[in-house]
Amino acid sequence: MIAGGNFPPTRWSVIEAVRSEDSIERARALETLCYAYWKPVYKYLRLKFCKPPDQAQDLTQGFFTDLLERDLLVRFDPAKSRLRTYIRLCADSFVLNQIKHAGRQKRGGDVVHLALDYSAAEHELDAQTIDPAAIPSPEKFEEFFEKEWIRSLFSSALGDLRRFCDSRGKHSAFALFAAYDLAEDEHRPSYAQLAETHGIAVTDVTNRLAWTRREFRRLARERLRALCATDEEFARESQSLFGEKP
């Protein structure tokens, strides 16, 4: 599997594709889902089950292998829960089963190996300075997973935006977006400062930021649509994340 890659059209859904008879489409869907969820799953397992990085990495790899081998995604019923809730519950069940059968022989050559940047996930956890003991209830762990899923979604959309800008020669537009919208409040430059730095008019800064924000929202919604099982779920999630329905 390769991280990232071209993303499918807006109306494409991983759940629809996972159930496809087309092996290429099915593999593409599984890859998209794994890379959308691996980091939330990894961080969640690290904190909830107090696992050191190496064990959490093995559990994350093992979980996605289990997800594929047992066709758990085919069993998902969008009428009963959201996809991310289902995946989180499957992860819980997998880890508890691993703990229960600690002496079980590990899987062999059929393990799915994902090229994942665990060091980046660890860096993010360090930056968040989260103490598992400070998360007092199961509901708080669920909330943490939700927030990490949103973080992963927007991070992927940001990568899409960078590639989109590069493909259209809009390098300065992305640079302005990164310098302003991704900056911490105390380090955010003014439009006038950005204009001076890039040698353009303030109106150009305004227009380019408006364009990149619009494209970022579009790309994020495409990512979101692919990870929703139904149009109804997509409408609810759009309302929640963007304050408006599609």
Number of helices: 10
- Residues in β-strands, percent: under 5%
Q: Into how many domains do the coordinates divide?
A: 1
Overall form = globular
SSE topology string: HHHHHHHHHH
Mean pLDDT: 85
Structure description:
- It is a single chain.
- By secondary structure, the chain is mostly helical.
- It has one domain.
- It contains 10 helices and no strands.
- Helix 2 runs antiparallel to helix 3.
- The two termini are 31 Å apart.
Distinctive features:
single chain, 246 residues, mainly alpha, 10 helices, 0% strand, globular, disordered N terminus
In a nutshell, what does this entry contain?
This protein is mainly alpha-helical and 246 residues long.
Walk me through the topology:
Blueprint: H1 14-18, H2 23-48, H3 53-69, H4 83-100, H5 118-128, H6 138-167, H7 171-180, H8 191-198, H9 202-226, H10 231-242
Helix pairs in contact: 2-3, 2-6, 3-4, 6-9, 7-9, 8-9, 9-10
